[in-house]
């Protein structure tokens, strides 16, 4: 049975992604920073008939927590087939670049960017042991510099500038990492799941978590001829 580790999977898009991946036959390690909330989410999945899932307590902002999780998973699996870097925060608002608190910017980057980098670095050896390793970095359309420069996104006058910058950086990480593993069995992509009703935006999003998760799952389960080093939603998102 193939394995997948999903960070921030106790709610929202991460939770639904865990459910859909389990339904496809993957054994899911549901990553949650909060153990109590993680156990609640685990219970919900099992109550819905999903049994191929297990909680893994992990805080992506803590290298010690990540290392503990890796050591635990090394005793449970020979290889990790899929890593989905989903954990993310919106940060306090507003986030205007000219006046936003630098402490808030650092906090957002710590989770949304450095968290994904730390996770990948710590689990890359387990991924290398997979026959078809996949990494999905859950990004956002707000990370598109092209969209911002063309003024085709509504960032609510700086409400999400820090968040947007962190996702642009995450996309850069995707490109660099995919380049490092070009010509190998790895498929590494950023996915913008779309404006989804979750806690991140006060449930103001215009689409469901089911719709968003399907996009993440698509790139988590790519075949050997699938793309790598790209930024996708339903189609290619411009950088």
General description of the model:
With 239 residues, the chain is an alpha/beta fold. It has one domain (3-232): Rossmann fold (3-Layer(aba) Sandwich). The chain is 42% helix and 13% strand. It has helices at residues 12-23, 35-47, 63-74, 102-128, 145-149, 161-180, 209-220; strands at 3-6, 27-32, 53-57, 82-85, 134-138, 187-191, 231-232. The chain has a seven-stranded parallel β-sheet with strand order 3-2-1-4-5-6-7, with helices on both faces. α1 links the parallel β1 and β2. α1 packs across α7 (209-220), α3 (63-74) packs parallel to α4 and α4 runs parallel beside α6 (161-180). It is globular, with a radius of gyration of 17 Å.
- How would you write the strand order of the largest sheet? 3-2-1-4-5-6-7
CATH architecture: 3-Layer(aba) Sandwich
Return the string of H and E elements: EHEHEHEHEHHEHE
Query: Please, how many domains?
Result: 1
Calculate the mean pLDDT score and round it: 94
**Radius of gyration from CA coordinates:** 17 Å
General shape:
globular
Uncertain stretches of 5 or more adjacent residues: none
- Tally the helices: 7
Number of strands: 7
Structural class: alpha/beta
Helix percent reads 40-55%
Largest sheet: 7 strands, parallel
What is the distance, rounded to the nearest whole angstrom, between the alpha carbons of the first and last residues?
35 Å
What do we call the CATH topology? Rossmann fold
Query: Percent of residues in beta strands?
Result: 5-15%
The CATH C-level name is Alpha Beta
CATH superfamily: NAD(P)-binding Rossmann-like Domain
């Amino acid at each position: 049975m193939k394995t997948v580790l999903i960070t921030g999977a106790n709610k929202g898009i991460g939770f639904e992604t865990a459910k859909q991946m389990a339904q496809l036959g993957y054994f899911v390690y549901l990553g949650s920073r909060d153990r109590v909330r993680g156990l609640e989410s685990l219970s919900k999945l099992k109550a819905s008939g999903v049994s191929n899932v297990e909680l893994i307590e992990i805080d992506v902002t803590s290298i010690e927590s990540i290392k503990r999780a890796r050591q635990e998973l090394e005793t449970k699996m020979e290889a990790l087939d899929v890593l989905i870097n989903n954990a993310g925060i919106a940060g306090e608002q507003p986030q205007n670049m000219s006046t936003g608190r630098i402490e808030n910017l650092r906090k957002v980057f710590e989770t949304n960017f450095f968290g994904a980098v730390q996770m990948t670095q710590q689990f890359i050896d387990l991924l290398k042991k997979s026959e078809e390793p996949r990494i999905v970095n859950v990004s956002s359309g707000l990370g598109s510099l092209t969209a911002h420069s063309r003024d085709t996104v509504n960032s609510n006058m700086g409400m999400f500038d820090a968040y947007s910058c962190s996702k642009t950086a995450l996309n850069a990480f995707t490109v660099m990492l995919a380049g490092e593993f070009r010509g190998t069995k790895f498929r590494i992509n950023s996915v913008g799941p779309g404006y989804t009703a979750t806690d991140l935006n006060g449930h103001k999003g215009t689409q469901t978590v089911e719709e968003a998760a399907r996009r993440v799952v698509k790139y988590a389960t790519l075949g050997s001829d699938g793309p790598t080093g790209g930024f996708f939603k339903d189609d290619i998102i411009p950088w």
